[in-house]
TrEMBL record, chain B:
It comes from the Archaea. This is (2Fe-2S)-binding protein. GO terms for molecular function: 2 iron, 2 sulfur cluster binding; metal ion binding; oxidoreductase activity. InterPro entries: 2Fe-2S-bd, 2Fe-2S-bd_dom_sf, 2Fe-2S_ferredoxin-like_sf, 2Fe-2S_ferredoxin-type, 2Fe2S_fd_BS, Beta-grasp_dom_sf, Diverse_Oxidoreductases. Residues 8-84 form the 2Fe-2S ferredoxin-type domain.
Length: 793, 159
């Protein structure tokens, strides 16, 4: 790459949202809405039950209670992709915790007290918790009317079953592949439901203004998604809904779609427009909140001995979506077309299913099914390599996709400017010192090993999603930037400001970015802040808007300076005639148009605008053919672990992450890498929603659902950004990095564990209990030998 | 001091000022600070003492305010980040946190700012291990802690 000379881009520019340090930053629970009422939900104690009667008379007697609402008050299902969710259960409750009533009162205390007095008569029904059981023909049906549900055109529900969506992908012939294969590996992998565990519990407030406008405050990654989906669900025009931007205390996917916003909205409608707020506590965030789905991957993969090439892959991928699918249908779709990851395989057959169970509902989780598929696929790769007697890095190199030559199994060409998959793998191998055996600890019960996996991220987004930006000049020559991005911690607002300052060559302080002082009525549209797309997509809209502004500045300056617009350049806060630097206008002289000495004025305020839509993507047809990807951020991740055979505890001694993309802001990029890595490592080692046999969550809080603490970070963590190619439509070549660093750790740790002690764990997480249990099952002699050694010493 | 309605009169010093509040015997300090005194920097993350986002300095020590009853706080001193405004320590904390990207979503950030302040005031010679140990009391789901730990080290470094 050639030497880059930027003013701000690639630099470690400190972020500017320092109101988060002083306590000024407002989250949903911090805003005061005069006269707001509190809502409290009543959840079902059964995983599946008919609601026979709801007696609200005692609850209504509690002083301060304004209303008690039930499913009868909301007689329709909601859902954007598949309309299959009763936010308040109507005739049947479909999971433990399914809200059946909502109490609205003057105070939270009164609402809580009244919620305990709502009497519900249930008739328990047969239920199903396991997705494989749910797929059997005699399984209890969650949605007997599935065939009648409204859904998007490219989704395929299977009426009369618990399958909300089935995706098929076919390439080549599995029979041909099977004939060629010398080695075949057939395995099943499983990952449990887990919770996003954003630190800010979700909340929303709503009121209906006297002009009929619905006003919403919500902890959301997608204020416009909330607007669109609410309008769609309630059959009201988007323009009647105003969603306020707020700081969002972590989302990780869980706050990207319409969640429970519609409850305070409808409550306010019923209460003559009085504001109503619903703020969940931690336990409620687990019971009522979105989760990451559980996954089951069944895979059969064959390879040739002669050249180490994979010749076929057949997969059945199951996405256990819980009681409702909605976005889960698209997630089940994505695992399907991700298919074989970054590997070029001639014969592929995938069936992926989104399956209902009597559990909480699920949604996107950071890295959008990639982490989970890599957990399965990258273990499959190591097993195949071992059977072939090949080094796992060499085996991967032989099978990786070739930019410019290979296609995805969907038929999309692998673009050369996406980067270099081999490059990231080779660099990760260097950084982990692949080939050099780790020094073993002196304790005989501890073992060390390394592993490397591929963990690319190709963001999944609809092919027609759009975003826009507006830049407007102020009298003093400064610029305001207005976009639809949500500030969820990632700091995109900062990166976008850097782009504006860079392009106009003005001090960063002269760019003001609208933060939470926005709502959907005064902000250009953006789909959602998700899918690692904000810097990439909104950045392109911003660059177009700045370009538009620059053209206007040049046009205006050319009229004043009486030169051709092409001979004007913009630098140092001025429009300057090239080669004649004494002929210049300060930006503040043209910001509001220009006034000639005689008082005559031209043009008026300068405002630039830009829009973006995906260029490379299409929908997928019934055989899975089409172009799902705008770009891929290639990454390889490697670990060196130490396992304690007696306790089952795994320590990460070294974590290496290499991603092939340049960044906009160095410290913000590193923040995504460190944060993503620790989350991914924690997902690998600890995170799991535990259900009892009746489908009740056993660990609905941080006491028993452990998220990582400072003491859990790897002993050493190395992050490297390569820039092998600049994606030509991305801002300064920068692809998304919000998710990619989560991806490979569960697979890498599982592979390293096998390399350390020969125990293969195909179920996540690799908790100490599971490691000990699997050692006992797979390698009982390991423990016995250690005990002997210790006894002998 | 007990009132006739079962409420208790509590006097405590908050961010340098004496405040009097009437509270129920079971009211948590976090609720008093947020709802009665308007100190919204004290965040409600779990209410079970796990996440630490409600950390305040309580008689000079970092304490989770969801685990303290306001009735117990009679005569005690409480500091929240609102009380650090304008101090030299806060200027330094702002600078090192911004320079190191030591915050993302901002929900745990006031707690870590207070921790930085406490280290500067009480443990200016804390070792890396002591800083790590102290940081274990506050959860952050965004940053992976690396940049926070660096900021805390720089906050007390005299370089």
């Amino acid at each position: 790459m050639q030497e880059e000379k930027y003013l701000y881009i690639r630099k470690p520019i400190p972020r500017r949202d320092i109101d988060k340090l002083t306590g000024e930053a407002q989250f949903i629970a911090d805003i005061e809405i005069p006269g707001a009422l509190w809502m409290k939900l009543v959840g079902s104690p059964y995983p599946h039950a008919r609601i026979l009667e709801i007696d609200t008379s005692e609850a209504e007697k509690v002083p301060g209670v304004e209303a008690v609402l039930t499913g009868k008050d909301f007689p329709f299902k909601i859902g954007h992709h598949i309309r299959d969710r009763d936010v308040l259960a109507r005739d049947r409750a479909l999971y433990v915790g399914h809200p059946v009533a909502a109490v609205i009162a003057e105070t939270l205390e009164a609402a809580e007290k009244a919620a305990e007095l709502v009497r519900v008569k249930y008739e328990p029904l047969p239920y199903v918790l396991d997705p494989l059981e749910a797929m059997k023909p005699d399984a209890p049906l969650l949605h007997p009317n599935l065939g009648e549900y409204e859904h998007l055109p490219f989704l395929y529900p299977v009426p009369g079953t618990n399958i909300a969506h089935k995706f098929k992908l076919r390439k080549g012939s599995i029979k041909d592949g099977e004939r060629e294969a010398d080695v075949v590996v057939e395995e099943e992998y499983r990952l449990p439901m887990l919770h996003h565990s954003y630190l800010e519990p979700w909340g929303a407030a709503a009121r209906v203004r006297s002009d009929g406008t619905i006003e919403i405050w919500t902890s959301s990654q997608g204020p416009f998604a909330v607007r669109t989906q609410l309008a769609h669900s309630l059959h009201i025009p988007e323009s009647r809904i105003v969603v306020h931007y707020l700081y969002v205390g972590g989302g990780f996917g869980a706050k990207s779609d319409l969640f429970l916003e519609y409850l305070p909205v409808l409550a306010s409608m019923k209460l003559n427009g009085r504001p109503v707020k619903l703020i969940l506590n931690r336990e409620e965030s687990f019971y009522y909140g979105f989760h990451r789905a559980e996954y089951i991957f069944r895979m059969k993969t064959g390879a040739r001995k002669s050249d180490g090439k994979i010749v076929f892959h057949k997969g059945e991928y199951i996405y256990g979506t819980g009681h409702a699918a909605d976005l889960g249908s698209l997630l089940g779709n994505t695992i399907g077309w991700l298919a074989t990851g970054p590997y070029d395989i001639p014969n592929v057959w995938i069936d992926s299913y989104t399956v209902y169970t009597n559990k909480p509902t699920t949604t996107a989780f950071r890295n959008y099914t990639h982490t989970e598929l890599w957990f399965a696929f990258e273990q499959q790769m190591d097993i195949l390599a071992e059977r072939l007697g090949m080094d796992p890095v060499e085996f991967r190199l032989r099978n990786l996709i070739k930019p410019g030559a290979s296609t995805l199994p969907t038929g999309q060409q692998i673009s050369e400017d996406w980067g270099d998959p081999e490059g990231v793998l080779k660099r990760a191998a260097e950084l982990i010192e692949w080939g050099k055996e780790p020094e073993q600890p002196r304790e005989p019960w501890k073992r060390r090993a390394k592993a490397i996996v591929m963990a690319p991220k190709g963001p999944s987004m609809p092919p027609n999603i759009t975003t826009s930006a507006i830049v407007k000049m102020n009298e003093d020559g400064s610029v305001d930037l207005l976009t639809g991005v949500a500030e969820i911690g990632q700091g995109t607002l900062n990166s976008l400001a850097m782009m504006v300052a860079e392009e106009l060559q003005i001090p960063l302080e002269k760019v003001r970015v609208y933060g939470i002082d926005r709502d959907t009525s005064n902000t250009p549209y953006d789909w959602e802040t998700c899918a690692s797309r904000a810097t990439f997509a909104i950045g392109q809209a911003v660059l177009k808007a700045v370009d538009d502004l620059k053209q206007q500045i040049k046009q205006l300056a050319s009229q004043i300076l009486r030169v051709d617009p092409s001979s004007i350049e913009i630098r140092d806060g001025k429009a300057v005639v090239k080669g004649e630097p004494w002929k210049a206008l300060k930006l503040e002289e043209v910001a509001m148009g220009y006034t000639f000495p005689d008082g005559h004025a031209i043009h008026g305020q300068l405002i630039g605008r830009g829009s973006w839509v995906p260029r490379r993507t299409t929908g997928l047809d019934e055989e899975g053919r089409g172009h799902p990807l705008e770009f891929v951020t290639y990454s390889a991740q490697a670990v060196e672990i130490e396992v304690d055979i007696l306790s089952g505890r795994i320590d990460i001694l070294k974590a290496v992450a290499v991603a092939d993309t340049p960044f906009i802001n160095k410290i913000l990029a590193l923040g995504q890498a460190y944060g993503g890595a620790l989350m991914g490592i924690n997902v690998a080692l600890r995170e799991e929603i535990k259900f009892d046999e009746n489908g009740k969550i056993l660990n609905p809080g941080f006491t028993d659902y452990k998220i990582a603490r400072a003491g859990d970070i790897p002993k050493s963590i190395i992050v490297e950004f390569l820039s092998t190619k600049l994606l030509h439509d991305a801002p300064y070549g920068a692809k998304g990095i919000g998710e990619v660093f989560l991806g490979g750790w569960p697979a890498a740790i599982a592979n390293a564990l096998y390399r350390a002690i020969g125990v293969r764990i195909k179920r996540a997480p690799l908790s100490p209990e599971r490691v000990v249990e699997e050692i006992k099952k797979q390698k009982p002699d390991l423990l016995e030998n250690i005990v002997k050694k210790l006894g002998g010493e | 001091m007990s009132g006739t309605d079962g409420e208790i009169q509590v006097k405590l010093k908050v961010n340098g000022r004496m405040r009097e509040v009437r509270v129920k015997p079971n009211e948590r300090l976090i609720d008093t600070l947020r709802e009665k005194l308007g100190l919204k920097s004290v965040k409600m993350g779990c209410l079970t003492g796990e996440c630490g986002t409600c950390t305040v300095l309580y008689n000079g020590q970092p304490v989770k305010s969801c685990l303290v009853l306001t009735a117990e706080a009679d005569g005690k001193e409480v500091i929240t980040v609102e009380g650090l405004a304008g101090s030299d320590e806060m200027r330094r904390i702002t600078e090192v946190f911004a320079r190191n990207n030591a915050f993302q979503c901002g929900f745990c950030t006031p707690a870590f700012v207070l921790l930085a302040y406490w280290l500067m005031k009480v443990k200016p010679k804390a070792t890396d291990e002591e800083i790590l140990e102290a940081s274990n009391s506050i959860l952050c789901r965004c940053t992976g802690y690396t940049q926070i730990l660096q900021a805390l080290k720089e906050a007390i470094s005299r370089v």
